[in-house]
Structure of rRNA adenine N(6)-methyltransferase:
Amino acid sequence: MPRAVSAKLSRQHEPSAGLRPGSARTAASNPNAVHASNQNSSATTKNPIFNTDKFGQHILKNPLVAQGIVDKANLKPTDMVLEVGPGTGNLTVRILEKAKKTTVVEMDPRMAAELSKRVQGK
């Protein structure tokens, strides 16, 4: 599965001083180390509706996973929930069924518009 890492934020780690020389491969000895992760992220399938590459998002599609998250959270009707990055709202609609108040923060305006349409009046 590709990692959601920005090229700006990723960095190469050097082995700690306590390791024996030659016991760990460094990025300098493996020129393909950095390129391998970049190839995986560009090989992912593109979502024509929501181009989420810029934000590093993944859409939660499996309803059983969403329900499992809500069940494990053990939400009560008096709880207030903060959800960061709700995406299309697959988890949000399940949280709204259980919690008193849900506040969501989405930085992608297209996702925010989709979420607003989906939960209008709930």
In short: The chain is about 30% helix and 10% strand. The radius of gyration is 20 Å.
